Amino acid sequence: MTLAITVGVLFALLLLRIPIALSLMLSGVTGYVLAAGVHAGLLTLPQMMYSALDSFVIAAIPLYLLMGQIMLKGEIGRDLFDIAQWAVGWLPGGLLVASITACAIFAAISGSSTATVATIGGVALPELLRRGHDRKPSAGSIAVAGSLGILIPPSTQFILYALVTSTSVGKLFAAGILPGLLLAVLFSLWAVIADLTRGVRPQGEAREAVRLRPGMIWGVLIIPLVLGGIYAGWFTPTEAAAVGVLYALFATAGVKRSLTWRSLYEALRDAVVSSGMILMLVTGADVFSRALSLLQVPQNIAAWMDTLDLSLWQFMIAVNLLYIVVGMFMDSSAAILVTVPILLPLLTALHIDLVWFGVILIINMEIGAVTPPVGMNLFVIQALRPDFGIGEILLGALPYVVMAAIGLALVIVFPQIALLLANRVG
Questions:
Q1: Which of 18, 200, 379, 418 has the fewest CB atoms within 10 Å of its CB?
Q2: pLDDT of 31-44, one tens digit each?
Q3: Cis link prior to 179 (omega < 30° from 0)?
């Protein structure tokens, strides 16, 4: 009965459009009060909230968000798109491939799906339309490729997953590299095939049309600095985030001089708002998951699943189907914080590598980023181009979603795609 009331309160608050962080916190407190009494429930609330954020690892989240915002406001996106166009613009569908490549590069800078879509989409989408590309694949490719922002490190979602599972952030970052590159290649492959099938190449896509400038390289150098520093053992992921912020300021304000005082203020403001939202979500989800643990929910689910005697592959199929549905209604941060604590006993019982599972989870969340009714990347594209309908963007994204599903299947069948680099990190 207590569990039913707790879950009922959660769904009621969500239906009333109460922010999910507050909904999780209030329903979690309800469960605690009903199970342990009013005094004990309210007494432990501040302790739970404090312990949820009392982590050196979690300090990396606002720092990586600030790093990405500085690079975004410092107009690095145009440089990345020009570099990508110069590198791959000679291919059939070269501009689409350049857009996907630029998304992959910016993903390694921002760690954010929506920031990647907004940055690269704002630069690439007008150029794609001007040069004669169809509206649907132009919008859809950027919407899906932008989701690489939560897979290619540094990724705030990997940090959240590490907090819940006590997994190494460095290993998760390493595990996301090859799957991220695999998806980028699959997306690019579809763009090339579609252009060859269409038989018409827009004019002016030769890389000679792009003029490279020495200053363009500064945006790209942040990737080997941050990731290379982590894997070389020079600094921890949290320290790497601080180094990344300093480098972003140096590159945009000191070298390129594209970051003004006003844009720096906007970067700080947006980073604070995003950090506040995520940290509130961490707190709310922690309270809710502790309430579920007090009510023995994860343990009971694990015992029930044990009676089913599922094989590893049956379990993985069931979990992936679950996350496809969850991704339709919940953003990636909330999905990780709510579902992973429940599944963790099952993952442990089945001896599933938590790093490998983390990559599988994040790829599912990538698909969820372009799946209605939430599908945040679809709405970001529509915000960039109000004349585009959500249905139109979704139709353009579907072939790339299929390619993402193929990439997901490959990572599931061949775990070494994720674990090859992760196992090399100490």
A1: 200
A2: 888 877 777 767 77
A3: no
